[in-house]
Amino acid sequence: MSDLLAPIGDLSRMTEKEKEDLLEVIIHTYGKQVTNFAYTYVKDWGIAEDVAQDVFIKVFQHLHQFRKDSSLKTWIYQITANHCKDLLRKKYFQSTFLTDLVGQIINGKAVIESSEHTFLQVNQEKEMAKQVLHLPVKYREIMILYYYEELSTEEIGTFLQISVSTVKTRLQRGRERLKRRLKGGDWLG
User: Fold this and answer.
1) Where would I find the H helices in 107-163?
2) N or C: which terminal CB in the chain sees fewer CB atoms within 10 Å?
3) What is the distance between the alpha carbons of residues 121 and 91, in angstroms, rounded to a whole number?
4) pLDDT tens profile 16-45
5) Which CATH number does the domain 134-188 belong to among 3.10.129.10, 1.10.10.10, 3.40.50.300, 1.10.340.30?
């Protein structure tokens, strides 16, 4: 099932029923993966599920544009990444997401043991995750894929269609920007 479209001829000649049936198979095959991938960008399961729904609507609407020069999975992941990037660029999403994150910390959803060390460590991790969201998209996506999705630099390069050296450069620059933000105190308020 690496490429569901291999046995299918001209997508533009498919009936609506055939397209709907194909979409059902695509959703069954890639639905969980798309939701998980979206989560690495948005860090909220509800929003990730909404993103996945939007992505599959776009897949259905633009299936006739799929050129088969890459795998279907790569094409769907690219749509997902672009949709997530658009969402993260929106000021409303950023303020809502950060407000929710702070609310979770305040309401105790972050598991905090009684020791001061653990409390500080959890707060630092939350603040770091928040600061990653403030990085420019080209650094943020690399940091998310590398640290949260745990993809290798080679996998990231293949997925984003950039060279491994570009991935490494952006990863290093993202780390430097994050370090400057944290040392500069910008992350405290």
Assistant:
1) 116-132, 137-143, 153-160
2) C
3) 28
4) 888 888 889 999 999 999 999 898 888 788
5) 1.10.10.10
